[in-house]
Amino acid sequence: QVQLVESGGGLVQAGGSLRLSCAASGRTLSSYAVGWFRQAPGKEREFVSAINRSGGDTAYADSVKVRFAISRDNAKNTVYLQMNSLEPEDTAVYYCAARAHSYYFAAPSNAAYEYDYWGQGTQVTVSS
User: Fold this and answer.
1) Per-residue DSSP letters for 23-90?
2) What is the pLDDT of residues 22-39, one digit of tens each?
3) What is the H or E stretch that residue 107 is in?
4) Which one, of 33, 41, 24, lies nearest residue 88 by Cα?
5) Distant-in-sequence, close-in-space partners of 23: CB < 8 Å, separation ≥ 6
6) Angstrom distance (rounded) from CA 54 to CA 98
7) Mean per-residue pLDDT for 12-22?
8) Going by C-beta distance under 8 Å and a sequence separation of 6 or more, which residues neighbour residue 5?
9) The Cα angle at residue 1 between residues 75 and 57, in degrees rounded to 5
10) Phi, psi for 89 (deg, rounded to 5)
């Protein structure tokens, strides 16, 4: 079983940047596809981005596609989410999640129910 810990959240002005990290322990992260999801107050959790096990395939929500970039460093057991040009609408708790039983080159999933392990989340607040 893998444990996930997110970090890097905080308060930033609109137009600013943050880099979130998802660090894994317990198992090597290369065994998992990893996704980022977020949940704003009063809203349902939504998909943000995902990366497959190889790191060669990524997926993004339309709302973040040109502003966010996901990457992974399997040697460091960490996945990153670089967030640029942040908007107040990006304010949410951001969660990373790991999906077991994923083929190495399979396309990453944007479905939360397909992810098996979740971190506790990190708060991102974007002020206008």
Assistant:
1) EEESS-GGGSEEEEEEE-TTS--EEEEEE-TTSS-EEE-TTTTTTEEEEEEGGGTEEEEEE-S--GGG
2) 999 998 999 999 999 999
3) none
4) 41
5) 4, 5, 7, 76, 77, 78
6) 14
7) 98
8) 22, 23, 24, 25, 119, 120
9) 50
10) -70, -15
Tens of pLDDT along 91-116? 999 999 999 988 999 999 999 999 99
Output the six-digit token pair for 11: 């308060």
Q: For residues 101, 120, 28 and 62, what is the CA-based torsion angle, rounded to 10 degrees? A: 60
Cross-strand bridge partners of residue 95: 37
Task: Give the HSE-up count for residue 119: Cα atoms under 13 Å, Cβ half-sphere.
Answer: 26
Token reading at 13? 């002005």
How far is the first Cα of the chain from the last one, in angstroms, to the nearest whole number?
A: 40
- The sign of the dihedral angle between the CA atoms of 81, 2, 122, 37 is positive
